[in-house]
Specification:
149 residues; mainly beta; Metal Binding Protein, Guanine Nucleotide Exchange Factor, Chain A; five-stranded antiparallel sheet; 8% helix; 36% strand; globular; binds zinc ion
Length: 149
């Protein structure tokens, strides 16, 4: 079931809420859009996710609210510069990213599940994870090794 979670950076300047479904398969809400992005959380081997340990949950704009800290947020873009990776300029934590991709139905947020303050260990443990082989630019299947992600 999709629930409203609250998240923050480490120093607490940046706070947000987001509707995210962390439930395992069989107990999940029906996604509002087609596509794999709305069916699980994601861990990835790409240079960005790997170095920042980013644990992704895709969220539609209607399900995301920035509560505070807009002025504290820096923005980092690389490669094709299509994704706005946001980070707290005070503590360095990366609570979310945003982008706009037609195949995903337009604008979306990508919340860092690790920044959710009220997700329980049981919810985090049960959350479905899809592994992406971003390091090899192979987005159609998981990398050979995943435990370290
Ligand atoms: Zn901070």
């Amino acid at each position: 079931m999709k629930k409203t979670y609250h998240g923050s950076c480490h120093c607490g300047a940046v706070r947000f809420s987001a509707g995210i479904d962390l439930a395992p398969q069989g107990r999940r809400s029906t996604p509002e859009l087609p596509g794999i992005w709305w069916t699980a959380t994601f861990r990835c081997t790409c240079s960005s996710c790997m170095k920042s340990r980013f644990w992704k949950a895709f969220v539609r704009p209607a399900d995301f609210t920035l509560i505070s800290g807009g002025e504290a947020l820096g923005e980092y873009r690389f490669g094709e510069r299509a994704i706005a990776h946001r980070f707290c300029r005070n503590c360095g934590v990366r609570p979310f990213a945003s982008a706009d991709f037609e195949p995903m139905g337009g604008a979306f947020y990508c919340v860092n599940v690790a920044c959710l303050d009220d997700a329980t260990p049981e919810e985090l443990e049960a959350a479905p994870v899809i592994y992406e082989d971003g390091r090899n630019d192979n987005w159609d299947g998981p990398p050979a090794l995943t435990f370290y992600l």
